[in-house]
Amino acid sequence: MNLKHAIFAALAISLVSATQAYAQQDFSKVEIKATKIAGSVYMLEGSGGNIGVSVGADGILIVDDQFAPLADKIKAALHTLGEGKLKFILNTHYHGDHTGGNAVFGPEAPIIAQTNVRKRLQQGATGQQPAPKEALPVITFDQSVSVHFNGEEIRVLHFPHGHTDGDAIIFFTSSNVVHMGDDFFNGMFPFVDIDSGGDVAGYVKNVGEVLAKLPAGAKIIPGHGPLATADDLKKFHDMLVATTGIVQQRIKAGKTLDQIKSEGLPDEWKSWGTGFIKTDRWIETIYRSFAARK
Known about the structure:
Layout: H1 3-23, E1 33-38, E2 41-45, E3 51-56, E4 59-63, H2 71-81, E5 86-90, H3 96-99, H4 102-105, E6 111-114, H5 115-123, E7 139-141, E8 144-149, E9 152-158, E10 168-172, E11 177-179, H6 200-213, E12 219-221, H7 230-252, H8 257-263, H9 279-293
Helix pairs in contact: 1-9, 6-7, 7-9
């Protein structure tokens, strides 16, 4: 097995292990925290990806739904926000910590997602079993779709080959809130799922494009981490540009992955490696993504 294949195998194993660890988590201890953001939009935090919620006269729309064992707690939290019925579910991508509740919520309301999300849920991608029919998106789109709900256009845009190949970023246009899914890990190195069409260079490009589109004063729901502002997203983008640039320079200098990892990253990025993705893993991800481009 050559070095590139060894890296591929190691990262795939680590993803499967992380997914299994999530599945074995004791969800009885998880509490769902609701935060009013702006306009009709709230954020729910629990375990897994942050949930966006639109609440108003038309009912309730949610963006992502974490894990199936948390569905009752999520429903209880939604009831505290409004008495309306759940009308739509949007998925930002296919990973189980964002779509695990689809099987519970899907029979209640239509699921909307980018075309590749349905394909990957059907197939059962890395670390996941094929999803049951009720967990599959019934409305899919290639580039964009809008849901006109609770007095605003909720614009859903596909950003290709970033975190995965099915990423969608959600713009609540009147509330001035953006849900970025896992194209934003606030204050942390991100997970880029290269085995599912993700790409580090594409990820950096996509975050830059969202920054350029952000209206003044927008509040941002990250896939993971606390509620954010444009300044937080700018810091994240600066980190992406700087760290990927460092690794690329070392690759061009002919250094091996082990050499690059041993040199690490500057101390200014040390705190970013305290989340799910440690510094070594982020370096491996960058290395692997740019090696695949060759």
